[in-house]
């Protein structure tokens, strides 16, 4: 009986979703060469090319288009069978740190799925700046932390790459003011240095306001058109809008959303939470 390797199928699905071998490798936590080899092995098994490559990147070939939905279904079914047969007997506690701006809609579906599947695990959540959370992990006060760091110098376990964008009030005009009022959640915000560097590189007059460690204050000030802010594109909250190029604000660098783990042997509950995080992001 002929069978398909689920590891190869998972690599194929992630590459198809991300449209990049490099980004897929980051999500799968393997080298780009390993992903390329896995795709080549699957193509050899199926007898044809799964992707077409051009100057814009990669896209699904006809064979890949036929395989994609079925591969997703097989991976989902595998997860369902595993959960039904094995069940969840995990116990213990997991201490997770999340930046202020990711603690809402971005992380909520992941934590909801984890808690529902592992009712005996006590999950505690701490919010802070990325710098503060990484320090807590290094001290052993947190088991895991999701942090934001410039993609060019990222040291954590990359979960995804996202655009750092300027945001303002819907229909607002704060971006026209001189000096430009900028609100970031905290003085230790990971976005602070690249935002300042970008503004100074444009010779734009600016002033920093409302960096008091309170996300709701920053959101309220920006939503009231008293300032602009920088946010990851995937986490821009309702009521704020991404400013277009017509705002004439400088480009901001891409950021990595990364995972950092405490030293030592991770608990089974922490390992399972990491699996849930990867699974959700791979499917999103």
From TrEMBL:
Name of the protein this chain belongs to: HTH-type transcriptional regulator GltC
HTH lysR-type domain sequence ranges: 4-61
Membership in a protein family: Belongs to the LysR transcriptional regulatory family.
Signal sequence extent: none
InterPro entries, sorted: LTTR, LysR_HTH_N, LysR_subst-bd, WH-like_DNA-bd_sf, WH_DNA-bd_sf
Domain of life: Bacteria
Claim: Ion transport is one of the keywords in the record: no
A molecular function GO annotation: DNA binding
Keyword entries, A-Z: DNA-binding, Transcription, Transcription regulation
